[in-house]
Write a structure and sequence with these properties.
With 55 residues, the chain is mainly alpha-helical. It contains three helices and no strands.
Amino acid sequence: MVDPFTVTRGKDAGMEADEFLNRNDAYHFFEKTKDLLMTGPTHTNVMDVRLVLVG
């Protein structure tokens, strides 16, 4: 989950978002910024998608 302060929280933790993007390693970046969204199993054979639009 990303908000306007995600990159700032990363910098405060000593990380550069570009480095993680170049390594395709969003998991560890979001984990350290506390922005990682962990979903549980749906126990179905289809993919569940939820979108939130803020206008």
